[in-house]
User: Fold these one by one.
Assistant:
Number 1:
Amino acid sequence: LAKTTQPISMDSYEGQEVNITCSHNNIATNDYITWYQQFPSQGPRFIIQGYKTKVTNEVASLFIPADRKSSTLSLPRVSLSDTAVYYCLVGDMGYGNKLVFGAGTILRVKS
Amino acid sequence: ETGVTQSPTHLIKTRGQQVTLRCSSQSGHNTVSWYQQALGQGPQFIFQYYREEENGRGNFPPRFSGLQFPNYSSELNVNALELDDSALYLCASSDQLAGGPGSEQYFGPGTRLTVT
């Protein structure tokens, strides 16, 4: 499974757009890119998944360049409640949905 | 539709003891995975069950074992507890075995295990 690299932490203010970039230089052809969010003492929650180009849902956008060696999670107009740890995962997940989590990015949103 | 539930919420055990953690998967989901999350780290995959059979295992010793029942609920058993087993244990369910689009996993709130 491809190794991912994310910033350890990021700070933002309410109402700003936040972009978290993940590097995955060894991504394989069959790999998908998935982002999860985790609040303290809770299980991770699925945010978004993509393979290439751009994916958007009601909470976030995921930008994936043509070489797929990185991806950027974009959170529009963050609020205090978006303070959490964000995990970037890469894998074909063919091994029965096994998820490999890295250390994640701690996002702190301030007022 | 009920989400993934886990019991107990918190648990304190002594080194050397055994513990059983329980998970009820989301309605309609036939796959359950267990993860261990130490403080300040990302979750680490322990193993997965699909239709009552183990389907994949992470780098955990045999004293970590599990079961899945016909209703797809699951148990995680840990024997001979060690201090390093102190962690948040997460259960996740999904309705697909293979990955790819739509392979979203739904996590429960976890069980906080403290080994003293």
Number 2:
Amino acid sequence: DGGITQSPKYLFRKEGQNVTLSCEQNLNHDAMYWYRQDPGQGLRLIYYSQIVNDFQKGDIAEGYSVSREKKESFPLTVTSAQKNPTAFYLCASSIFGSGSNEQFFGPGTRLTVL
Amino acid sequence: AQRVTQPEKLLSVFKGAPVELKCNYSYSGSPELFWYVQYSRQRLQLLLRHISRESIKGFTADLNKGETSFHLKKPFAQEEDSAMYYCALSGGGTSYGKLTFGQGTILTVHP
């Protein structure tokens, strides 16, 4: 089932707290991505990384931070600066530079801010 | 800038009827277009992409560069086709590898 895992499945956070979402892949993919999925808005790109130790802001990076210290891992931190963090978060990976941009998705983490 | 528009949030059809999910895009170069599907309680997965010109689960999609569209079609819908469908675009240059998604269409196929 995929090779991309996300944890936890559900996460609850109090306002003002930072929280980190985990994403791991064993597909040996170079590129990894974080999306936010909201009803009626589709998937919006938060951050992406095409290579270890490098990452780029996506369309809605404000209030989020990432790191890419290992090829297999791309954790996302939702900071207290994110105004509306309650959402479903999806991680994806792909083989960068293969000529195909197919992305493979994890099962997602649903974050709820109380 | 690249943009993908799916004009229908909801689409309902009866089993056996034809179905067409619309997707229009805006991109100045030659894009790569995809359809992704998310069934209930399953992860988002690739359904098909225009470069492979395949028919997957009876679905087809043709890239129309003149109309900048990539509509998804199936001649006879099945109940198991009920899902959320996303159209996505990948460009080149600095956008290479990034996907821009449409807002999604929830397809419901009634028995």
Number 3:
Amino acid sequence: GAVVSQHPSWVICKSGTSVKIECRSLDFQATTMFWYRQFPKQSLMLMATSNEGSKATYEQGVEKDKFLINHASLTLSTLTVTSAHPEDSSFYICSAISDWDYEQYFGPGTRLTVT
Amino acid sequence: AQSVAQPEDQVNVAEGNPLTVKCTYSVSGNPYLFWYVQYPNRGLQFLLKYITGDNLVKGSYGFEAEFNKSQTSFHLKKPSALVSDSALYFCAVRDGYGGSQGNLIFGKGTKLSVKP
């Protein structure tokens, strides 16, 4: 089946630093990827839609200058949390839409803790 | 606007008993409905989906869901619960198919607890 990986699976960083999270589709190409944020015991909140070769589309209330998204290839999208603060601590999940069956496949998530 | 409602924050079931996790939806047009399961600190795992056809959909791990258009519901069911089924379950809907329309709208999730 289609597999989406995320790296790292967890990361701890200091306040003010930047963190990059990678999302890869391992055995399929994905023109479209999504980035979600999940707070404890809550549902997934869509942050942005990432389209290969173009700028990401951010949901209302999501700071595009803080959460930089780059979808440089058909198998890789990155989310960079810039100048991270403790309130950015969360579980970040990416998903990718397969270009052959148009289904959405989810990565295992990245736990970010900002101290 | 598309939306999904999961009215129960938590469902408690004894092992071996049947379980139901409720979901209702609101969409314009034909609904594409999904159920996902999430274990602690893990991503979402696909269970099943309804696109068209038979209203009873069978999925992974013995789960099934029944699409009811008149009640706009898509409840998740399993005849005999296992302790290992304990997890967070999300219902989701997608209006449209493929490309940039492929984003899923998730319910708030229902925690399923199966006791021995």
Number 4:
Amino acid sequence: KAGVTQTPRYLIKTRGQQVTLSCSPISGHRSVSWYQQTPGQGLQFLFEYFSETQRNKGNFPGRFSGRQFSNSRSEMNVSTLELGDSALYLCASSWGQGGTEAFFGQGTRLTVV
Amino acid sequence: GQNIDQPTEMTATEGAIVQINCTYQTSGFNGLFWYQQHAGEAPTFLSYNVLDGLEEKGRFSSFLSRSKGYSYLLLKELQMKDSASYLCAVREHNQGGKLIFGQGTELSVKP
């Protein structure tokens, strides 16, 4: 069974640009959550999608958005990039919202210069 | 609000046992997760507790006391490869799959 796949693995962007990251969950999993990980703040919740609907949102500005497709694949978008957006972006896949397991992808390392 | 506390760093010896504690304060508890994360890699799921008691999985065990807002991860027969960051995360009622993470405990295993 394939794991959670995130693309791309690494990305370098300049300030003011926008970026789209992709996450394909484990087959059969319908819930995808996104997290930002930085050395100073640790892992912080961005948002969760279940059945193509955003079910929960963290305390991030509106520049961060996402969506989920009918095949459960999810994308997150960050517009007007700032230097502080440099981080490891992780997505977590689980069967449902109350699942007993949540598996992370390898992450996308975003560097904003 | 939510608050999750873990020790920042721990050191242990190869072959020994180490216990990593996690205390939490939440509005409505709905499960606690432990993850292992090696430097530069994604977190790996270790365990899930929602009821009080001990869950054992090979060399790793996790304990939960809901009344005390307390959990620990027990690692036995430590190996060098266990050197990693260990993350405690809590899920709350009516928050779907959202996990609130502690800052992580950096474990160093010495020969």
